[in-house]
């Protein structure tokens, strides 16, 4: 049989895992990089003489202004990480994988070069640099999540695995910090990261499709440049079709029996305006805000709890970064929850019933994710330094479930041809909520005098809002099951059956 063999598909899977785990989400290791940047004197001019001496190395100085500036860099970078996902998703859906990845590689290379050539006097370069790294990274993972389509019943597991690798990539800045402490310059390390773009380019040409990987996967599907001198990025059983017929990669996306939650003909606007999507965005937004605030304020919070002990802050910063490596191990657990109904020897539903079974499996995943974030928020609110070790562990588990579950849910609940746009729109809308992190930081640094305790208590209440989303999904499953029952739908639903999500009134 022709098409991409198992070795090629595994090569795509493993190289994508390396790409996500080493490059895509490095901005979320910000706490480790801040430690280096402070040591180099970035934004040091914002430190003011303090009337109250402290036992750390910045004796007699108040660097809250410096902390706010670093927080602003992270706020803008994380905002761009989400907000620009929507236009990038449109590019991915419209122009395909190659175009999207070339844009991502250009942004990522530019961001690493800006950091490499920045200096304490040109610290303002950190603003565009972190934004470019964020947008380039999120676009790389967006193009990688379709790799799950190559592995059928393991689709959700692979999507969550890639998102876990994205979380683990934040440990790259820990490596930067440790190498810096051993004498390697920040410029040399970021020049090396820039040089790695050559590897991204080779993977784009040989191990990724030109447009998109369809789902379900057609027989004899192939992708990447061919060794026989053919430069086509795919080869399927449809190759012998007349030139006027639909292309092979687009045809499965419009297949009569879709595996998304809505019928394949459902327009993008109907999906984006559904209650299902609206409450999912709320689910994502409140928990993401909790995580962004934790990451963005970790360094000053540790300094507050450690009473300015520089060595102790370094130890806890390293511990936090090390736990981020476990994201790639935690995320597939959510995939196992989402794909649990596909295992076993019993008969499996097909067509619309299969999509309904997928959506039902997402309810437990959504509930578990909120419960984890709630527990993490409780631990984060405890003003005892050793408790933060437990907070670090809960944070990485919660964050792995959050982003992996977000991508998998959108792939399950909506038609595949809208995945890039819906994923981007969800991230863009959640980015607007994430902008609240900067006034929250200003509140802690100002009226709360560096103590985030009361802000953390407020965030616990905010996270509770996310429990509404799984309730909405469960009710949507009941509605769809009732409609199917009234229609007398058999095990394999007719291709003409269409079930649309409810839209807000």
Please explain how this structure is put together:
The chain has 505 residues and is an all-alpha fold. Helix content is 64%, strand content 1%. The protein contains 22 helices and two strands. The protein has helices at 6-24, 30-40, 64-83, 85-95, 97-116, 126-144, 155-168, 172-181, 186-195, 197-206, 250-253, 268-272, 275-296, 298-305, 310-324, 327-338, 351-380, 387-413, 419-434, 437-445, 453-463, 468-487, and strands at 48-49, 61-62. It has a two-stranded antiparallel ribbon with strand order 1-2. Helix 1 runs antiparallel to helix 6, helix 2 (30-40) packs parallel to helix 8 (172-181) and helix 13 (275-296) crosses helix 19 (419-434). It starts with 5 loop residues before the first helix and ends in an 18-residue tail after the last helix.
Compact overview of the structure:
The chain contains 22 helices and two strands. The chain is mainly α. 51% of the residues are buried.
Helix content: 55-70%
Number of E strands: 2
Secondary-structure element series: HHEEHHHHHHHHHHHHHHHHHHHH
Query: What assembly state would you assign to the polypeptide chains in this entry?
Result: single chain
* Secondary structure tally, helices: 22
Q: Please mark out the parts with pLDDT under 50 across 5 or more consecutive residues, or reply none.
A: 229-261, 491-505
> Which strand-content bin applies to the residues?
under 5%
Which strands sit side by side, in order, in the main sheet?
1-2
The major pleated sheet works out as: 2 strands, antiparallel
Q: Classify the secondary structure makeup into a structural class.
A: mainly alpha
Question: What is the approximate shape?
Answer: globular
Radius of gyration from the alpha-carbon trace, in angstroms: 23 Å
Distance between the termini: 51 Å
Mean pLDDT: 82
